[in-house]
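Researcher: Before we compare anything, I want clean individual predictions. No alignment, no superposition, just each chain on its own. First chain goes here; please echo the sequence and then give the structure tokens.
Model: Echoing the first chain and its structure:
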Amino acid sequence: MKPRWKGKGSEAKASADPMYKIVSQLQSSLIRSEARGLLSSRNVLIEVDAELSDLFYRTCFGRWRITSQEEKQWFQLEMEEAFYLCYSLECLKEA
């Protein structure tokens, strides 16, 4: 059974930029930046730059958090997402 795509050009876009490549870019970017997650209640907060913000958005990890600090961007990860990044991909450390 072939996958079904919503919208024109979705299949071509997915073929040109597959998810495994985006996740690999996210992993290497997190390792390079030595990212550390802050435990906050049932979530993990991570400070990100523009590149990481885009990669989190494209991989559908976490949610962007609006703060009063314009120079800093934060993403809120669920525990499952943080666990996957920390233990499966080994690219996120706990602060």
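Researcher: Okay. Second chain, same rules.
Model: Second chain and its structure:
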Amino acid sequence: PDLSDVQVIIKTSFPGQAPQVVEDQVTYPMTTAMLSVPKAINVRGYSFFGDSFVYVIFEDGTDPYWARSRVLEYLSQVTSKLPPSARPELGPDATGVGWVYEYALVDRKNTHDLSQLRSLQDWFLKYELQTVQGVSEVATIGGMVKQYQVVLDPDSLRAYGLTLNKVKRAIQRGNQETGGSVVEMAEAEYMVRATGYIDELEDLRHIPLGMDERGTPIMLKDVAQIRLGPQLRRGVAELDGEGEVVGGVIIRRFGENALTTIEAVKEKLAELSESLPDGVEIVETYDRSALIKRAVKTLNGKLLEEFLVVALVCVIFLFHLRSSLVIILSLPIGIL
């Protein structure tokens, strides 16, 4: 049985901010607002670099989906008071013991780097596994998130009279698409579309920022280095001390059978493994089903022992078989 508290987690991303700033501008307003949520018995707030977590603990027996709806209702009242770049969202509809299965992506042939494995997990495996009945969330750990990085040169910006905001707006404008209606020619319609999404580094390098005194266009490559690189990491995932890997954690939805969910996830992973690139394997690193089966086996064994002991005592001392049957039958009913 799941004996954990009924809780709702609010995660708020506030990129680039120190823990004290996150505490003052996000965590404190959020926790004070959640204190008024009906049936909430405890509210805990935690502030980290760039992230805020608020845990709302409810009374035992509270319906978790009712609790989530009430938290969402009070969250809508405080969102307008948060900084514009703060983005709050509810955690998965799971409990504190919802972590039931974990796997790792391993490249046996060393032909894929960590960023490629991370992309495989985030854009393929994660979405497929979320379709499995009973899965609330698939969390990714380890690896590297690939980024297009623009490293600005302050001296070049000063020489051209450019600001960071102007460069930011230019990049945003240079990564857009728009439609141009249709053009009718020779009894046929042709859809007009302006393609402007960034597909490669060269597209970034040739984004115009303005013109210099001689009328020459200033490109992004003139004031910055453009490269591919990893997003800032706060941790790594390693497997058996053999090197870094990318992992996935399966979070079970509240009220779902853990054993059934794990078996369904295993079947899905076996199906998806056939679509993985050559050399990439899925390695199981944690499986709670073994613990569940051992617990059930132990319970069955102990229950059988209790049956025999109680029956023997009743028959010997009461000398009445029907009376012993009443006592024996009460044991499994009491456990259920």
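Researcher: What stands out in the second chain?
Model: Residues 147-230 form a domain with the Multidrug efflux transporter AcrB TolC docking domain; DN and DC subdomains fold (CATH 3.30.2090.10). Additionally, The radius of gyration is 29 Å.
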